[in-house]
Amino acid sequence: MNSESVARELAEPNLRRLLSTAGLDVEYVSASGNTLYRQGANGEPIPVLDYAAGYGALIFGHNHPDIVARARELLDEQTPVLAQFSSHPYANQLAAELNRIIRRETGSDEPYYATFANSGAEGIEAAIKHAELDRVLRLSAVFEEIEASTRRVREEVRAGTATVPEGLGARLGLPRPAAGQDALDLLIAEIDRRNQRRRAKPPVFVALKSGFHGKLMGSVQLTHNEAYRTPFSALGAQARFVPCDHPEALKELLQDERGTLLQLTVADGGVRLVERDHHTICAVLLEPIQGEGGIRPLSRAFAQEIKAFAEEADCPVVIDEIQSGMGRTGDFLGATRLGLRGDYYVFAKSLGGGLAKASVTLVREGRYRPEFELLHSSTFAKDSFSCHIALKVLQMLEADGGQGYRLARERGAALAGMLRGIRTDFPDVVKDVRGHGLMLGFEFHDQSEATDDTLREAARSSMFGYVIAGHLLHAHAIRTFPTASAVHTLRFEPSVLLTDEEIDRLEHALRDVCALLREQAGHRLVLA
Ligand code: F0G
């Protein structure tokens, strides 16, 4: 490769340029625990305290020694990383351990079957594909019932044990049969035409405003952020978004999506036209705590409304635990706090322990379609390395009766307490502190009307959170980012290794930022 092409930026140069405007285009050369190390001007490692932590993917921090040791062990023993189409005992062990933990937290003995993938969005794609397969197969079963019923009606009319009442066709707007036309044939043809039109309606997914479920073709249509979603709307099944804590929006949606399938039956010697409820809602998706949308915890009450909605719509609740799961909120499941059991769960991020790329989609037995296993796969999924690493992460979370969860609760409470203390002292600057455990958001008031030019321009160009992140990095050697769809909110998602000293360092830095904002002193921002 010639020196010119090396000099030229070829890996997402536009993003790199954008990062540089906020001083975020720095190079990290190593990482351990809650610390990333930058390369100093003289090649010395500069420690940076990492509160972004892989966007919530490092429940045990960077390169945790026990997880690294397990990785080394696996590689030294030449684990069969890629052994597709084989028994994969490690995948079954992982699925069994996930089931054991879910059983404990939900109190239900119903098994969940696991489908593996390589990223969060892929896990969501598997979930929505499975839900669609289930919807289509259930719809086929309904059509088989309708067709069997039609056959029975034909037999009874032919045998003279049933007649087609006058005017039945008129209910469907059919004209009186002309000479030589058979009233029943006309009726059956019209019913089938209407039913097939209904059957051809595409599935509808229900998701929440501010929700984020990934950026692949299917999952991006379930992600509320319009910038991510709308350029690709033609590519995937559409979602309808409801605002959180608006149960009436769920009821309206169900009513709006409701339709009917028509069926002929026979009763008391007469042919009857029956209307069967039908809707195209395929699944409802939620995050127990919305992450990328601004660290917004779902309320228990609304979670129960969603459960009632799904029961009435007879569709699965897909709980996206990709960011809120794996102990981050202080329970294994972020949904445990909501008293909500999922029909499906999706895990990723911390499942890979900061070393492997893995996701798993779990479907409860009552909704599971074994056919799916022959229709969905991925070269790298369910591999021995990521399954064993994931088993190690679960073992570390579960050790000592759940030490990982206790740490997430205790460390999260200490961090949240500090953040709330700052909000109490700077109510003019800090709008809200949200979240649970080690999934916390710190929201600044909108600075779009700031008197300071720099701050106002940053806010108006949706760069405010990134500029503050740049200042935290260069003035305080602390790394975090705004949640990309809510740029006035900084995300704090460190590992359970968080120390009091690291909390103190963040407090000092944030108080500096709040003072700078209170004084409208944009000139004090350090972005390089
Ligand atoms: N679902 C949730 C709740 C997520 O937070 C993410 C990623 C995904 C799905 C997609 O997972 O990136 O592995 O494909 N969240 C990142 C964030 C982007 O900013 O928190 P992925």
From TrEMBL:
Record keyword Transferase present: yes
GO molecular function: identical protein binding; pyridoxal phosphate binding; transaminase activity
Pfam families: Aminotran_3
Signal peptide residue numbers: none
Keyword terms: Aminotransferase, Pyridoxal phosphate, Transferase
Cofactor needs: pyridoxal 5'-phosphate
Annotated SUPFAM superfamilies: PLP-dependent transferases (SSF53383)
Xref: Gene3D superfamilies: Aspartate Aminotransferase, domain 1, Type I PLP-dependent aspartate aminotransferase-like (Major domain)
Family, similarity comment: Belongs to the class-III pyridoxal-phosphate-dependent aminotransferase family.
Protein name (Swiss-Prot/TrEMBL): Aminotransferase class III-fold pyridoxal phosphate-dependent enzyme
